[in-house]
Amino acid sequence: MRFASCSRRPFGTLATSEVAFADARIALAYVAPRQGDNVFGLRVPHVLASEPADYLVAGAPVSFALAFLQPDSRFVRIDFIPEFGPVVASAVAGFGARPVRLLAAADALPQALQRASHWGYATGGEPCGEMRSTLIRLRVCSLVRLE
Fold first, then answer.
1. What count of other Cβ atoms lies within 10 Å of the Cβ of residue 11?
2. CA–CA separation, 59 vs 112, rounded Å?
């Protein structure tokens, strides 16, 4: 399925990813951008665009960046109200052998790292990377499971 932008030229193809939301996992449909369709000016490192991973997501606005990451990646929002805790716990428990990363707005990184530790993850000592767009600075951190 294709979508058209205001100029009526094709914008991208429909892709899906899973997110934890409310009491169920739902499929999040988004427009997967094609080369040249980056209206946000987002610069994404090649590894993030090409390697599927499980992402803990926090801060706002970051959802627009999900479409630029590898389409088979999974995303779990971790800064919901406490009542969503069981849903987030279930989603995080489903993480397997893929890399786990934190995606957060740069100004929300300290709180996001604290939330990640609540769910059993921390940085492995590597510095967090950065993605910039015309809207916001985003931080991406590789995470390891706490024992």
1. 17
2. 7
Residue 93, CA distances (Å) to 60, 87, 97 in order? 24, 10, 12
CA distances from 59 to 14, 56, 104, 109, 138 (A): 25, 11, 5, 8, 9
Residue 114 CA: distances (Å) to CA of 1, 2, 70, 124, 125? 39, 39, 25, 14, 15
The pair of structure tokens assigned to 44 is 């994404």
Reported pTM: 0.74
Cis peptide before 33 (omega within 30 of 0): no
pLDDT, averaged per 10 consecutive residues of the chain (147 residues), comes to 32 40 35 59 90 92 88 90 85 92 94 94 91 90 92
Radius of gyration of the chain (CA): 15
Other CB atoms within 10 A of residue 105 CB: 20
Cα separation, 11 vs 14, in Å, equals: 10
In 3-state terms, what secondary structure has residue 121? strand
User: Rounded to an integer, what distance in angstroms lies between the CA atom of residue 88 and that of residue 130?
Assistant: 25
Determine the pLDDT at residue 106. 93
Q: 102 near 27, Cβ under 8 Å?
A: no
